[in-house]
């Protein structure tokens, strides 16, 4: 049955809202994004051409995309892309979907990476490479090393570095520090490790169901990756180097204490835009 674009969007917005318990604004935006992708147009075009009939081939493409979204697949995986810090990154189910709170980690790291001279920076568990690639582009004199235990994640991160012309990043397959070898000491180490507790009910809801569990969950307390990084970081750091860690809303106190115990000082926690403790840093030496 032929239908006008506007009517289709209206009906499907309601269906999506109900199926995924989205708020109306998100459901509207998502149906428009799916329709725009099926038609090969932008959202402005859609709004101006709402009265037009949907051609059968476009309707079929749209129906496929909508069906995937109705089954819960995250919009970022359907499109294979997600914006972070103003850059468009390729993503896949091999990596976590970039989240806005990680921009805080990038901002805090940027403030500690000199723009006018070389600086060595390590990104642990790089995933799609958003942190390393963003820092590399904004600090062209910095030398970055990005590591991940997952070969599929590393391949994607490398592709993002190529697409976004970040040539100052070296990629290494490594389970945290274990395969790092003697690449030297770092002035800044940054990580958004898995930090959700393995039993957290959120893992069974929404986008998280489709994301790689090893990139989200870290043992029963959610602290195992943070603990390992904190315990092993210092020998890999230059004098006065800074370690910056993203963590859960309730892990600030733990992270500060663990850093202090490992010999870090000036340990401070920063809040994200939602007002929760999100990034803790400490200085060594
Ligand atoms: N902030 C993410 C979430 O709670 C978790 C990201 C992570 O584990 N690094 O969905």
UniProtKB/TrEMBL annotation:
Methyltransferase domain: residues covered: 118-201
Ranges for domain Release factor glutamine methyltransferase N-terminal: 26-80
Residues annotated for S-adenosyl-L-methionine binding in this entry: 125-129, 148, 176, 192
Keywords in alphabetical order: Methyltransferase, S-adenosyl-L-methionine, Transferase
EC number from the UniProt entry: 2.1.1.297
The keyword Transferase is annotated on this UniProt entry: yes
Short name of any one Pfam family annotated for the protein: Methyltransf_31
Enzyme class at the top of the EC tree: transferase
Transferase keyword on record: yes
Residues passing through the membrane, by range: none
Catalytic reactions on record: L-glutaminyl-[peptide chain release factor] + S-adenosyl-L-methionine = N(5)-methyl-L-glutaminyl-[peptide chain release factor] + S-adenosyl-L-homocysteine + H(+)
InterPro entries, alphabetized: DNA_methylase_N6_adenine_CS (IPR002052), HemK-like (IPR004556), Methyltranfer_dom (IPR025714), N5-glutamine_MTase (IPR050320), PrmC_N (IPR040758), RF_methyltr_PrmC (IPR019874), SAM-dependent_MTases_sf (IPR029063)
Family: Belongs to the protein N5-glutamine methyltransferase family. PrmC subfamily.
HAMAP family: RF_methyltr_PrmC (MF_02126)
PANTHER family: HEMK METHYLTRANSFERASE, MTRF1L RELEASE FACTOR GLUTAMINE METHYLTRANSFERASE
Protein name, entry field: Release factor glutamine methyltransferase
């Amino acid at each position: 049955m032929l239908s006008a674009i506007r009517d289709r969007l209206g009906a499907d917005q309601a269906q999506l809202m109900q199926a995924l318990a989205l708020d109306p604004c998100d459901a509207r935006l998502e149906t428009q994004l799916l329709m725009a992708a099926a038609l090969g147009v932008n959202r402005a075009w859609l709004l101006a051409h709402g009265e037009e009939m949907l051609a059968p081939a476009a309707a079929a493409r749209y129906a496929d995309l909508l069906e995937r979204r109705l089954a819960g697949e995250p919009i970022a995986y359907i499109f294979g892309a997600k914006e972070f810090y103003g850059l468009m990154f390729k993503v896949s189910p091999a990596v976590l979907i970039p989240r806005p709170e990680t921009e805080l980690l990038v901002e805090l790291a940027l403030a500690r990476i000199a723009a006018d001279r070389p600086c060595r920076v390590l990104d642990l568990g790089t995933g799609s490479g958003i942190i390393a690639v963003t820092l590399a582009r904004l600090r062209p004199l910095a030398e970055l090393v990005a590591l991940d235990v997952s070969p599929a994640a590393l391949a994607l991160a490398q592709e993002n570095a190529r697409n976004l012309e970040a040539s100052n990043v070296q990629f290494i397959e490594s389970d945290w520090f274990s395969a790092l070898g003697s690449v030297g000491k770092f002035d800044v180490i940054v990580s958004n490790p898995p930090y959700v507790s393995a039993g957290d009910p959120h893992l069974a809801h929404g986008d998280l169901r489709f994301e790689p569990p090893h990139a989200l969950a870290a043992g029963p307390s959610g602290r195992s990756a943070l603990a390992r990084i904190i315990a092993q970081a210092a020998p890999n750091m230059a004098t006065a180097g800074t370690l910056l860690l993203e963590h859960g809303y309730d892990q600030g106190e733990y992270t500060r204490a663990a850093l202090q115990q490992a010999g870090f000082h000036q340990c401070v926690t920063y809040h994200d835009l939602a007002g929760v403790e999100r990034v803790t840093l400490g200085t060594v030496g």
